[in-house]
């Protein structure tokens, strides 16, 4: 069973990582393990498993993405730990590296599981690990962020479990008791015969439960705080992957509801629910981005916007819109992880990577410190706006054009929100890169990480503009079945 | 209505009553006692369902509930209360009467939401569903109206009792689900225990109105 390896390896490795080694050894072991996991996620393409853990194409693609982002994060993490080692005790660094592995393993389990119960358990495990990670610095604000994350995450996870049980109950007329009624593949094959009323109720619970994990407004409160307080690699890059799992879970349940609705099974259409939450997320971000002064919090809000765009795409429905939504998730994951790698370097050039050193006023004038870091970070920020050479242009173009076609009333707020967000990001762009540097700024050396950032951006552009027809065909086939 | 239904409903009803009286309790010690009663009843309900459905796995669920939630967690909670010297602590966040009215409204919503489900092959679970959904929502309400971190945790645990109540009522729900819930709740509780000590260390209180560091600093 090759598919169990990329899941079990990180989960089991967490134990020795949590008990042994210095911070430096931990970081290196973490990187080695993650490289192995990345290799395994590629190997899984040829052995997608069976039974409870069986990856479909969606899981395989996002599994490989998770492995790749995990690997580059772990590589950047080595340099991060070298600089930040004195800030935490050796024991806390061990916990930190163990939690990195737990999050990675749980995310992969959530992507590969063909069982709604297992998916739930994976997300809960990832949440607990991430909560612990956020509170690691043990400063008052980190504790506050961790507590908020725990309470909101706990509420979400409770609602999601209730929804999961309702889906099981709704499947009883079609599939009968037992594991069959919890398997995604069996559920989607029999979606037309499920109890439509129960399924609608279940979807509402699941949307709000997993929507908390995906940080859709009004359940987003934990995300900016969590992004701003914990150790950057764990709380921003790896936690970004949890958002993907939650969004994919919503997409899968949405498919059940849509299939039941189309077949006349009595369920409500999922579109309006998703469109409302998605548009609310985009518009709220559009108006709150301009007021952020801390870069990590700023980009945390930008993650809420990206979740919102994906939710809108799933709400619009149809093969092309879902294709656009999935493409958007892939591209934005690549950009965000590169961006935070660049941000760590930028903060390091200014002296410290501790929370509180990421204010825009503190980081401004990056060109005077190091032009390569400045170009890397600037490139990522520009890519986030969705203006042309960025890959997000392609995905947002698909989503907006599909919205105009299929849900015209939503296109105006969507366009307005996207534009306001882009303007808010561009407003920070100039001062951050070219503004006057704070006094006593010394030029710093070029770190290796800038290559990783460039690699991420290159892959992002390549996927968006030069996608091989075979891959595009495969993805469209997948979304055709998911519409 | 035979004995299976009436007894299951009776136990579900008392579990709901426990959740509701949590809202009316000011003192932490009383909330913990109510939580313990709720967990003991839940394990009894699991045993009864196991007997009625003839499922061995439900007996296991009952045993786990009894061990972890009926005995271990209340013991740990009482230890924390003793350790932090909060035996006489009275904490009010919202007028009790208001929170109880809100609780009643939530129970009404739960019933209304479950009502449209066609009574058919799953009639046993329809009432069960209404009760467990009410317990879940009341647990969430406890988390909202309390200011003490410990009381919020009791609300979280109450929510989770509601989820298990729903799970044991469903015919043939695989045991893995309930087992993983129990395990994860235990893990979550351990994490939260650490949290409580840190919060106490930094703020000298478990009253969460004090910890608004991020608000104060301005975002």
Description:
The complex is a heterodimer of chains A (about 475) and B (about 220). Chain A is an all-alpha fold and about 475 residues long. Helix content of chain A is about 75%, strand content about 0%. Chain A has a two-stranded antiparallel sheet with strand order 1-2. Chain A is globular, with a radius of gyration of 21 Å. In chain B, helix 3 packs parallel to helix 7. Chain B is about 80% helix and about 0% strand. Chain B is mainly alpha-helical and about 220 residues long. Chain B has one domain (about 10-215). Classes of the chains: A mainly alpha (about 475), B mainly alpha (about 220). At the A-B interface, helix 5, helix 6, helix 9 and helix 10 of A face helix 5, helix 6, helix 7 and helix 8 of B.
Describe what is shown at a glance.
The complex is a heterodimer of chains A (483) and B (219). Chain A has 483 residues and is mostly helical. Chain A has three domains: 1-114; 138-268, no CATH class; 270-483, no CATH class.
Protein traits:
heterodimer; A: 483 residues; mainly alpha; 3 domains; two-stranded antiparallel ribbon; 20 helices; 76% helix; globular; B: 219 residues
- Integer average pLDDT of chain B: 81
Helicity level of chain A: over 70%
- Nearest-angstrom radius of gyration of chain A? 21 Å
User: What is the tally of beta strands of chain A?
Assistant: 2
Low-confidence stretches of chain A: none
Shape of chain A: globular
In which order are the strands of the major sheet of chain A placed?
1-2
- Euclidean distance between termini CA atoms of chain A: 31 Å
Order of helices and strands of chain A: HHEEHHHHHHHHHHHHHHHHHH
Count of runs of 4 or more consecutive helical residues of chain B: 8
